[in-house]
Amino acid sequence: MHTSDLGSNTRGHSVLDSGTGAPAGLDIRLSTGQARTDIDNLDLGIISLLRMRREVSQRIQQARVQANGPKTDSDREADIARVYRSCFGDSGDEVAAAVLRVCRS
């Protein structure tokens, strides 16, 4: 198969919808609906992980306060922000800030 054959059938007709880029005849709403379901399921997983992270973070915060230390560790939070930034670029700072904010409450 040549690269020029991609996107066409054996008769030279396009097999891709010119408007959506999806395979011709595919109901894009079905694909979108499934993708939205996938996103909803991923969001539920993220929420569950954030709740677990918050519980662990709160235990650490309580231990720090009981030891007469600060509730938060700015160096540790900067390290966390660097990890998110390395994964998501500049948006990583916002993601890290949101995660840290949720876990402090």
From TrEMBL:
Xref: PROSITE patterns: CHORISMATE_MUT_2
Domain Chorismate mutase: 26-105
Highest taxon in the source lineage: Bacteria
Signal peptide: none
Region annotated Disordered, chain positions: 1-23
Bias type Polar residues, positions: 1-12
GO molecular function annotation: chorismate mutase activity
GO-annotated biological processes: chorismate metabolic process
SMART domains: CM_2
Name listed for the protein in its UniProt record: Chorismate mutase
Species of provenance: Streptomyces botrytidirepellens
